[in-house]
Amino acid sequence: MLDIDKPAAWTPTKVQFLYRHRNSRYYVRTFAGGKEKWTSLKTSLLSVVKNRMKEHLDAAERQKSTGESVPAMGKLTFGEVTKTYRRQLQASEVRPNTKAYRDAGIKLVFKSWDGIADLNVRRITSKTVEDWLRRFEANAKPHVPRGVTAAARNSTGASATTIKCALDAVRQILDIAVVSGHLYANPARNVTVGEAARRMLKTVRRERAERGTVRLPTRPEFLQLVEAIREAGVADCRAAADYVQFVAFCGARKNEAAHVHWSDVDKVRGTIRLRVTKNGEERTVPMTGEMRQLVARMKAEQDNAGPTQGLLI
User: Fold this and answer.
1) pTM for the structure as a whole
2) What is the pLDDT of residues 149-162, one digit of tens each?
């Protein structure tokens, strides 16, 4: 707490709890545990101040509601709280795909943030999170899938999905530090971090758009492509052509199409049931006329196929 001997040196602003010192810097005035606390926001720019205030006000509010003092809680590293988060994640009832997504985010954080495992969570501020995000984008390397020698032409290693996945992991892990009392507020959820992430994602999407838009084939072009696959003269080329038509006609993902059985085809209602989906919830899609013709031909070619046999064998 600062000892204010000269009240005239401080000027209240129109923003509650915000004061300006005669040195032009702004301070936030908070109350917790029966004590008054003045904290420098280390800037003279009002536009920056409004974002930085939230972290300190949230901290004071948490201390008032819990009565706990963070210094008394002991040291907690990011690596330690990550272990707790992983245990809670595995014990939760979220879908397997969600668990895999969040686990991937954790791996991205540890891969891109040197020394994060041993860093005390109290040393993590909104500025350090912003700095990490900038390094993450600048140092990202294109992903090279298993079994191939080079990354995709448009791959940067820092897509909008990748950046969001990593930032979500930091936020969720630090939420546990807040709940346990080691942090008063989550710095990764600060307004400034959110704005930095939005600017970054906007840049990533713009750069991706500038690399060229995807042009879908016309109907004649699509049929020509299917026929070229069917007549390729290699093993399973006919099955590959059927697969391309199937996913195009029903909009199924690769894994969804692979798990469609003949029992999932309802000729009376004219629908196909997709049991294995991305979010774990099965859905039903209608069969178009072309899909009905495709399914009928495939059934004729698989005359002995049982109800539990896959369509795309």
Assistant:
1) 0.54
2) 665 555 555 677 88
